[in-house]
User: Fold this.
Amino acid sequence: MLEEKPYHHGDLRRGLLDAALRVIAEGGVAGLTLREVARQAGVSHNAPYHHFADKAALVAALVDEGFTQFAQTMQFAYDAAEGSALDKMVCIGVAYVQFAMNHPAQFRLMFRPELRASDQCLPLQAHKTYETSSGFDVVIRALQAAQREGLVAEGDTEHLALAAWSTVHGLADLILDGNRNIASTTEEALALARVTVEIMVQGLAKRP
Amino acid sequence: MLEEKPYHHGDLRRGLLDAALRVIAEGGVAGLTLREVARQAGVSHNAPYHHFADKAALVAALVDEGFTQFAQTMQFAYDAAEGSALDKMVCIGVAYVQFAMNHPAQFRLMFRPELRASDQCLPLQAHKTYETSSGFDVVIRALQAAQREGLVAEGDTEHLALAAWSTVHGLADLILDGNRNIASTTEEALALARVTVEIMVQGLAKRP
DNA sequence: ATACATATCTTGACAGTGTCCACATCGATG
DNA sequence: CATCGATGTGGACACTGTCAAGATATGTAT
Assistant:
């Protein structure tokens, strides 16, 4: 059953999303073009408009998928981590950077507000704000657990979580968008992430 | 001497750079358009090409200016800081975030590689890589001073500096690009920066 | 099954963009 | 003053996002 290029694509929405990720992977976020996405998906330049209101809506869908995958990754890392609550903090921190390395296209999109400036991107309302998306919740819960175990001083958990978040987010951003000579391989990036996160967690830890 | 709109602008290069910053401030990085910049500067859509090879070159010039201002800001903050080497670390960390709040357009540009993808952006070669630009050097020197005073454990200074850099960079990025509800005013942002940086510096500090 | 309604895809058009080209104008230098 | 290079203008091209109108396939009601 060779692909006879039927008039109807089957699941063009999915095809467009995948094509968009491919385009970003090849040409970067700047090279993301609706027409190029349509070309890669093998349809006319206007077909996407039957699945997305505009370019921003397509991006919004990718961002939405990204945040969902991201939350799952963080939750999985937290569940799989062993050791003390602080050890778990280190693990989810490294998982954050690893997600950025494994899904650079989604990661870049997720934190680029100028690309998702469409008012009608409904799926994003589910996240309300990105910082309070469930990925952030995992950090909050990990910190609360550490506080319960007496490993982290009581205090504004939101502030502590923001500090931890900032550290891994900044590192991921610098590695991805800053020049590549910070870390040229994923292994190198993860090693840096571990060192960096351990310092931050040390800062969060309660003094004896 | 009312502006008679002479044929020659006087310093169009400067005018274009200022216009570009204005455009970004109004419409964000995505709204930065060569033609709009020319319009704001009051010249034809092609005049910029006599001062910049292409759009990326204009952005590169802005980035270059940004890194220069940034390095000065960091150096000044370091020199003006009082107290121990750790106190100075906190000060330059807050200064980092403050720079991002005061110069959001430049800051966004500085860490957006897709916008400066011009091969012939010569002025950037002076910085070689952004991480080793003199702004980063200030962090390195501050850490070395802290190590000399015995406040920070000996070790790979580059790694420690990257951790500190990541934290403030991530925070600035989240505040600027992530939704504004993290911090709605500059004062709020600086307060968050202080809390966050103190945690990171605590992590860098040597245990007794 | 036949006819209609709907979802999907296509072609064509328009304004706006970055960039190249040829031409116009100014300022300095012989 | 004549000339030349630097600076600015207008027009053109391919490309983009988006809208409008028409074509085709799928599903549903009779």
